[in-house]
Amino acid sequence: MTPPDHEFDPDDNxxxxxxxxxxxxxxxxxxxxxxxxxxxxxxxxxxxxxxxxAFQEALGGxxxxxxxxxxxxxxxxxxxxxxxxxxxxxxxxLECLVELAARFNVDIxxxxxxxxxxxxxxxxxxxxxxxxAQDQLRLEGYTLWTWDTGTDAHAGWMSLxxxxxxxxxxxxxxxxxxxxVGM
Length: 183
What we know:
single chain, alpha+beta, 4 strands
């Protein structure tokens, strides 16, 4: 499987270009999915391609308009370049955020000696973990995004801060109500 062809550079990522402040009417859903995967896998086109291949395989030649696109993308990115974790499972959220941040060579200081300690995990909220991660990721030039799941779960991705505009443009076009943590 290969990324979709389109008249614009597939590595453009809709990066903060004021002239591209809206989705190209010619862009197919597959092109937008590819762009999002590039954004949430910065510098790792191989990972983006693996997730795009999984997306295409899940489609199985079907029509993307017949599927729950956010659900499908969640499945192909979960614990690779994204997360979807129940609000009450702070241990899994912490583990996933640590793993995702490690992809960017960022260590998150949770403010305790052992963040995996049960006492810490029972007193910290999922929102608190997300805000701590966001504060430190922003210092390193990254943004932590969350999107509305319609449930008590927290879901999102990390991207380069320079790609914030790209996420703001592409995510809604794919059905995600995404926003940076804390905003």
